[in-house]
Write a structure and sequence with these properties.
heterodimer; A: alpha+beta; 2 strands; about 45% helix; B: mainly alpha; about 0% strand
Chain lengths: ~70, ~425
């Protein structure tokens, strides 16, 4: 996608497909380690853990229900 | 961005690209070169499960749920825009970023859940292929293996662009939904009204209505989409300057997908008007034949197959890319079969195993569908939380790529809504008596 000028000073453009273009230096996580535990990250991961525990408990209840174990208890 | 100097062009090292004279030509051509991942991720989301859900919505509630699609449009766009931005900024897939920034535990959890829910979804895609071909009189022992073979041949050519062009052509075949919607003659004034004005169906809020609304949200924003588009953007090596075109691609994909979903609801609405009870789109198609003609009947069946094929290739690739990223394997469609054996083996194993399971007599498809909903409820909130946190990771992305404050307000709202809906859906599936 470079802009060029020829000898007659007429502007023209070369459009290069991303797959044919030279690689760019991207944002890399190399050497950064894990994400910094800011309050937002800590709260988000805690909420996520709580959510997953709740879902697992519901799944366990559903499996026991399907197996008829809860029916016997009632 | 590379600046190309004309005098460097030699016979030995030809400069690639196309020369144009006008600025608008440059913009159009650049857009066309970038175009693809956004449309594919959105349209592949209109997979067999989505066809079934949208047609059920039309079949059970007529035009009443059309407005939900308008609400979902910005949600789709904002979520996938974040994915495209992260993919362009890092050049890596979502699974790799979770693994690198949140550690092995969260990385493995996300990967395992993604692979599981994707595989279960693939079974439903092949079930749809089987049902549609049975309705057309083709034995599933022919239709399912041939479909699996075709889906494999699509990716093993060693060319990302070849795969992309085939899939874009399949996406554009979904334009036929608009023809079908036109043929069934909906009341266009009513369509416009119910699209723009939120209304409640006659029976009020019922358990089945809540379930269907959540299913529409769940089918419009699926977990594999986050992984797929980021890997696809990385695979296409989109550059920083391509972001605005990737955003336009994503916006076009979102609008097209929502419009196609609306057309599916209109076809379902035709069944509602004629009081046709159906459990899957193939049944509706057969019932529509005598009323709307063979074109509509065969159109719905073929588009059902097309939706399943699109869903299968995208979902299988999402799995293969994610697994390859975490394992550190070569994971690219640019590679030949023997250059990335693990990547292609994952894709072929996903497609082959799902196809084989569908051919087992009396396979419990209802259990598979319920499991998809439960595991999607597990992975979607977690994947979207990681996405939001990564887009606020200044250490990784710097100021240029992180979310702006207004982005965060919108995206945290979307995260909260998706969390609540996923929990509600999972609760309704696992504790069905809770809402009675």
């Amino acid at each position: 996608m470079a802009t060029m000028q020829n000898v007659l000073n007429t502007e023209y453009f070369r459009v290069i497909h991303p797959l044919d273009d030279a690689p760019e230096e991207k944002c890399s996580s190399e050497g950064l380690g894990h994400i910094a535990m800011t309050p937002a990250v800590r709260i988000s991961l805690t909420v996520l853990r709580g959510y997953l525990i709740l879902m697992t408990l519901m799944l366990g209840y559903h499996v026991l229900d399907l197996a008829g174990a809860l029916h016997q208890l009632r | 961005m590379r600046i190309v100097e004309p005098q460097l062009e030699t016979a030995a090292a030809p400069i690639k690209g196309v020369v144009v004279r006008r600025r608008w030509q440059r913009h159009l051509l650049t857009f066309l070169m970038v175009f693809g991942p956004g449309l594919i991720v959105m349209e592949a989301d209109n997979d067999a499960g989505a066809v079934s859900t949208y047609m059920q919505a039309g079949g059970q509630y007529g035009l009443h749920l059309l407005w939900i699609l308008i609400v979902l449009l910005p949600i789709c766009y904002f979520v996938q825009e974040m994915v495209a931005r992260l993919g362009i900024a890092t050049g890596k897939g979502h699974a790799a970023m979770i693994y690198e920034r949140f550690g092995k535990w969260w990385g493995h959890f996300s990967l395992f859940d993604l692979l599981l829910v994707n595989f279960l979804t693939l079974i439903t895609e092949f079930a749809a292929i089987s049902l549609a071909f049975i309705a057309m009189g083709v034995n599933p022992w022919i239709s399912v293996p041939v479909s699996a073979l075709g889906l494999t041949l699509m990716v093993v050519t060693g060319s990302y662009l070849r795969w992309e062009r085939i899939v874009i052509a399949l996406c554009l075949m979904d334009l036929t939904w608009f023809v079908l919607a036109y043929i069934v003659h909906p009341d266009w004034a009513a369509v416009a009204y119910f699209t723009l004005v939120p209304t409640m169906p006659a029976g009020g809020i019922t358990s089945s209505l809540v379930f269907l609304v959540i299913a529409i949200v769940g089918t419009t924003i699926a977990p594999w989409q986050l992984f797929f588009q980021q890997s696809c953007v990385a695979e296409k090596r989109l550059r920083f300057a391509d972001l605005k075109w990737a955003r336009l691609d994503t916006l076009i994909g979102s609008v097209f997908t929502v419009a196609v979903a609306g057309a599916m609801m209109l076809v379902g609405n035709y069944g509602y008007q004629h009081r046709i009870a159906f459990e899957d789109p193939a049944q509706l198609a057969l019932a529509l034949g005598p009323l709307a003609g063979h074109f509509v009947r065969n159109g719905v069946l073929l588009l059902m197959v097309n939706a399943a094929v699109l869903g299968t290739t995208a979902i299988s690739l999402a799995s293969a890319w994610a697994y390859g990223e975490v394992k550190g394997w070569e994971h690219s469609l640019h590679k030949k079969l023997w250059e990335a054996p693990g990547f292609y083996a994952t894709y072929i194993a996903c497609v082959g195993a799902a196809a084989a399971i569908v051919l087992i007599p009396h396979v419990p498809l209802q259990l598979v569908i319920v499991s998809v909903q439960v595991f999607a409820g597990l992975i979607l909130p977690s994947a979207i939380i990681f996405l939001q946190l990564l887009l606020n990771d200044r250490e990784l992305l710097g100021e240029r790529w992180v979310n702006r404050p207004w982005n965060n307000v919108i995206n945290w709202t979307i995260v909260a809504v998706l969390f609540a809906l996923s929990l509600l859906l999972a609760a309704q599936v696992m504790l069905p008596n809770l809402f009675n």
